[in-house]
Amino acid sequence: MTRTITRAALAAFSLAILGACTATKLETRAALPPPLLEQLPVRVGVYYSREFREYVHRETRGTIDYEVNLGPAHVTNLDWLLKAMFREVVPVEDPTRISGIQPPLVFVLEPKFEEYSFLTPKDVAGEAFIVTIRYLLTLYDGTGTRVDSFTFTGYGRERAHTLASKEPLAVATQRAMRDAGAKVAVELTDQESVRLLLHGVGSPLPPSPPQPPEQLKPPPPFTPAQIPPTTSESSKQRWPVGQPKPESQEAPPPAQEPPPPGAKPPGEESSSQSPPPGESPPSEPVPPPPTEEQPPSGP
């Protein structure tokens, strides 16, 4: 009898332990807003490894098993994002063997998961799930040579009502994916190595951020010496400051009016009044000196 009770108690305890362990499985959805950027007229490649395409994050927190499927949604998101950024995106099987692809590729990107982590309301003594996603993008040039790598991190947060709820964690994950995708769209073409590869094919990217236009300085104030006089008192004309003074032209002499009838020409009047050559002009007569009165003589 006692042995039967012991077996029943052990079975009940085992069922209690198994019932306490719950599994939380969620599928992330591909949902990114359309990027507000101009598509570049270049041909690039992308390589998705099997590890990236099938990546699943598994983790146990207390009595809850978390399983988050990240790979398929990220492939869809990155495909859509890169096609919005570049005119043609070509999937490749090996990023180091692309030299024979025609037309040639400007570069190839290989994404990898560096981190997926989250905090539950219990971890932060709050009411929200907080998710962090970090990607590593490796850059290969058109010959398949690895030239650079970049890290992009996204963050997401969503309020939760229960610790084992799947929906808040899924929403926080999608927000982290959106945040990281926005950083890729904005910051990827600003990387120096990417910029150099794009310039090698005549990309419209500017070599540097545009400089503000040069500010015009006001002209110095005029001084009296810079203000020219008028060319003539009659016309009152002026010439622009800084221009050479125009050559003055003498005005033609005024036309002479014909003399009235009976009047002598001016030349004849002057000739009649002037003495002949060699003679001095006549002088005015000098009046005689006054005579003194003699006193009368006596008888």
Q: In a few lines, what is going on in this structure?
A:
With 299 residues, the chain is of the alpha/beta class. It has seven helices and eight strands.
Write the layout of secondary structure elements.
Elements: H1 2-20, E1 22-27, E2 40-46, H2 50-53, E3 56-61, E4 64-69, H3 71-85, E5 86-91, E6 107-119, H4 121-124, E7 128-141, E8 146-159, H5 167-187, H6 192-199, H7 266-273
Parallel strand pairs: 1-4, 2-5, 2-6
Antiparallel strand pairs: 3-4, 6-7, 7-8
Summarize the structure in words.
This protein is of the alpha/beta class. It has helices at about 1-20, 50-55, 70-85, 120-125, 165-185, 190-200, 265-275; strands spanning about 20-25, 40-45, 55-60, 65-70, 85-90, 105-120, 130-140, 145-160. It starts with a helix and ends in a 26-residue tail after the last helix.
DSSP helical segment count = 7
Q: Would you tell me which CATH topology of the domain at 42-199 applies?
A: Double Stranded RNA Binding Domain
**Class inferred from helices and paired strands:** alpha/beta
Q: What share of residues are in beta strands?
A: 15-25%
Estimated helix fraction = 25-40%
What top-tier CATH class of the domain at 42-199 fits best?
A: Alpha Beta
CATH homologous superfamily descriptor of the domain at 42-199: Lipoprotein like domain
| Broad shape | elongated
Spatial gap, N to C terminus: 220 Å
**Strand-and-helix sequence, N→C?**
HEEHEEHEEHEEHHH
CATH architectural arrangement of the domain at 42-199: 2-Layer Sandwich
Tell me the total number of β-strands.
Answer: 8
How would you state the average pLDDT, rounded? Answer: 74
Largest sheet: 5 strands, mixed
| Major β-sheet strand ordering | 5-2-6-7-8
